[in-house]
Amino acid sequence: MRLTSTHEKNTIETSVATGKPPAPVMENRRALKLVPFNNASVVCNDGSRAGFYLRKHLNSKKWIVFLEGGWHCYDAPSCRARWLRLRHLMTSAQWPETRDVGGILSPLPEENPYWHNANHVLVPYCSSDSWSGTRDTIHETTKFRFMGAVILRNVIAELIPLGLGRVEGSELLLVGSSAGGLGVMLNLDRITNYLQQERKLMVTVRGVSDSGWFLDREPYTPATVGSSEAVRQGWKLWQGSLPEACTQQYQAEPWRCYFGYRLYPTLNAPLFVFQWLFDEAQMRADNVGAPVTPQQWNYIHEMGGALRSSLDNVTGVFAPSCIGHAVLSKRDWINIKIDDISLPIALRCWEHSTRPRRRRHNPNNKQHQQELVPHERRPQRPDNHMSTLKHRRPPTAQHKEKKQNNLDTHNGVRPRLTKAEREERRRLRHERQQRRQRKLQQRNNNNNKKHRNRHERRRNEAERKRNKNLSPNDNVTILHEQHPNKKLRTNNNNNKHISNGVERKQRLERPLHKARKDRRERHQQQLKAQHTGKLERQQHDRAIEATTSIQVVSQQRKHMRRNRVPRVPEKCALRLLERCSWPQCNHSCPMVTNPLTGEEMRFLELLTSFGLDIEAVAAALGIDMQTLSNMDRAELINLLTQQAS
């Protein structure tokens, strides 16, 4: 009987049993799109061109490169068996055009709260060498190539033109599960040096290893090939590239660097480790089989204790006491918790703890006020920094004198203000801001009034010039054209000694002048009314537009706040190791099913399958068997956890 967790049952076992790759993606929004390598010489085991899947997020400086897992093959028989059963892990011929991966590569905030808006890169595993091989020619016996380390380096090289490390503040999170988790540890420092030293890029590199922390213990069955022997043979077959700092410590046996607890002390780049204490891959590598005897249970229990002890020197670790394997690409990875702290929160806390920090303020030593911690460098300023400094207003002499007087009064040390003084300073600052706003609003109103008056003066002046240039006869013609049915009023009491032409001219000038003046006044009043109404409509429209824009901006800000990456959680812990030494004694452990019935196994049934004497457990806990059997899983787990602590 082999115990199977739902994590593995839903993903790994399905692909292993069918020998087919995962199904293609149906949702375009979640899709990771296939990008074949430009370099055709970087290939999988069978010589097919390798590549990666990419989903870019605009304006994001974060990149997550995820290395898939899938164990390895170490000699000709194991590689032939792998080709027959797991061919999709050795060739790219069956890769779909799109992939859908959950967990830390999910674009959904509810599934991936801290990294949903990063640039996501998925690198399929097709080299069977734990991402360490450099053999670019066909091996005579196996007939395969092993280029895992070359594939990863080529992925990073092809991501640089796409934006990796091209802007200040870029971050690369190299993540991997199972063999991919081991690949992260083997390549982390090498990728960091390649980006920062060779390519001179401004990028921070971190690593996350998921279920890749294996132990080189003696197998349960001595006649079988254990994990140590498989790695020793595979290292030669793959022409494995190992970190130089680690191989110097294990010169007689360099292949020991494939085991995390030996490799971790030699790493320079920050690394976070997630590891199930009862990892299924470790049990499979140790050939322990289905635990049905007390001897097998003792071996597994010792394995969990050894795994816990090997993580003592790890800065960032999350190790629940569960049976499982790999979690970071699962959609329910946010449900895994230790002490009410979920895995994403723990990972986010660790990521924040590894960011550069400035030294504390030291007023007596101004030289150190602008320095960083020695292993952290201050980010370079942009090229236009000096141009912005040129446009700054230089401080006045009065400002310099006031500043110097403040420093001289207190011996060069700024005084610490009381709470009342800070409140008074805040109130004065608020009053100054309000005065500035009132002045600005008054200035805008005056400008609008001047603009309206200027517009009216120009219109009146143009009308005056037009009427001044017209002769009396033209006025009569224009007036007659405008009012053809209206008779002109004349004064018959004029001087009779004037000639007929002069008399007619005098009779016409007076009423035309008055009519022209009245007409001009009416026209000006109409223009003024139209202009006033137009201004009122414009002001009304502007008020509506301002209200609408404020509502739109507020909605956008709410939407941005909703999609914004949360800040560092209040409850943080960098080292989370399960206190309980029993398997599945964590409330959030993935469900374990019986492969014969497909039903979930009760906790006591699980312990019984391990060969544990339940009566001895009841006696040790000081309770009777009936009470122990009637306990639900939560009560029993709490009881065992208290006993363990």
From TrEMBL:
Which spans does this entry mark as compositional bias, Basic residues?
Answer: 427-441, 448-457, 513-522
Q: Where is this region: Disordered?
A: 1-23, 355-538
Source species, domain of life: Eukaryota
Composition-biased stretches (Basic and acidic residues): 1-11, 373-384, 502-512
Matches recorded under PANTHER family: NOTUM-RELATED, PALMITOLEOYL-PROTEIN CARBOXYLESTERASE NOTUM
GO MF term set = hydrolase activity
Family the entry assigns: Belongs to the pectinacetylesterase family. Notum subfamily.
Stated name of the protein: Protein notum
Q: Give me the gene this protein comes from.
A: NOTUM
Instruction: Tell me the Pfam families matching this sequence.
Output: PAE (PF03283)
Q: Which InterPro entries match?
A: PAE/NOTUM (IPR004963)
- Give the lineage: Eukaryota, Metazoa, Ecdysozoa, Arthropoda, Hexapoda
